[in-house]
Structure prediction request, 578 residues.
Amino acid sequence: MVLDRVVHRYGATVALRDLSLTVDEGEVFSLLGHNGAGKTTTVRIVNGLLAPASGSVSVFGQSPLTDGASVRRRTAVLTESPTLDERLTARETLEAFAEMYDVPRADARPRIDALLGEFGIADRARDRVGGFSRGMKQRLSLARALVHDPDLLFLDEPTAGLDPVATQQLHDTVRRMARARGRTVVLCTHNLVEAQALSDRVAVLGGGELLALGSPAELARRITPRLEVTIETDPAREADAVALIAAQDGLTVTIDRTGLLRVGGIPRERVPDIAARLVAGGIPLFRLEPHEPSLTDAYFALQQPGKGSE
Amino acid sequence: MNQRIVAAIVRKDLRVVRRSRALMTPLIVLPVLLMIVFPTVFTFLPRIVGGARTAFSEMFRNLPDPVKQQFGEFTEATWIRVVHTQMLAPLMLLVPFMVANVIAADGFAGERERKTLEPLLYTPATDAELFFAKLLAAWIPAVMIAFGGAFIYAVIVNVTAWPVMHRVFFPDLTWTVMVLWMAPAFAALGLAGMLLVSLRVRGMQEATQLGGLFVLPVIALVVGEVRGAILLGPLMAVAIGLLVWAIAGALLLFGVKRFKRTSLVGKL
Prediction:
């Protein structure tokens, strides 16, 4: 999936501004951003539901605008809220969509049975969707998205409303699709922990612009280069340790409830120096543990005005 | 055009309609009223309402000459023929119109309101397949109910009028043309009108309110018939049917050009 300098407007509002990105086959890719950042617009453009004002889009080497049916035959979208016909049963829902995606009749029934079982809906298959809980609806929506075994799956806030077990199950499904079956998954999410756990790469969007692109670890390191370090020392020497660290430029130090020292704002390359100074000062060092910045740290750093990098 | 995709959407839409009490109530009540209750009641009206015979006889005298020439002097047999082949006949056209109108409203505006349109837009169905499927989902049941209702109507009329007519007198050629030619045309008009309205509104309520305006040609026909201004013969039925087909066709052509994913998604 390739987007090249895509621009989209809703009236006078610019929804996407020169968005360029590539998602490779078999990758789990996350689109992150606040509401209105352009995530859903991107999904709609990639599936041929919206025409970009300028720029080009290619999915499986085809244009979603001119070869939309062919592109959509290989993609699936799990929308943010479960958009199911409440008057249909779970099985009827899957059967209808299997036909719409032209799944061969011989394959449809076993695949539907397998999905109903996999997502824990088998015993409610003949019940109307209107009586399902939010979590069950979300699971059925996901089953519907998978009924034609798509090559490219878009998941818009897939775990919203799911309980922890169902969330874990969805994460397993995503991993299995990508790792074992070579499918591509694009997650649109606000859940940064989920994005970090599942994604090979992430794109952070803000105001329709690409603010950052890379692997979660890479982005975190690039955007938040300073670390937080936890230090455990002899409680009797804590005050000396605090004084020594606080004397260093730009470092902050606090003692947490468990008596551990939390040192913030340390550039990665200065960590050995801090350790050496403590040892040279005769302060016993029981533990020194740097914490890698998370995607969450990077995300919030990016949302500050003036930030952004490719 | 992928017939399997079209058939899947049609089946899904009809299933959804069948399970909605709010939709099925008018779809059952209207045909039962117009095609079972009305013919039964009107056949017996001169007998069951005191003074009705005199009143209808007077009404007959005031009808235009061509009508009087066609049906002759007032008798109970004349009453039955006039009522069923002229006065009530156009009312039958309300059935395909309303059925198509209601189902189309649910299929276009209702689907959008329930947020179930978006997953359909993400399927491989082309814009033309989606459009065609939505049309068929409204048109087929409308025409089937019209045909089925017309058959029941004919049976009821012949059975209830047997003591007077002593023969199978119904349907006549005009009524046959109305059922086979005009009813499908009015179904097409009903759904074309609703399609145009649904492309512009967001909700089912707005759609049904505005879409109902397209019923006015049917009302005009009914009033014209009852007042004797229009004498519906086979040729007139063919001509009116042709006109309605032309209007419905033009509206559908106008609608299909605007039925694009890229436009529909803007109203989600």
User: Anything to note?
Assistant: Residues 3-267 of chain B form one domain.
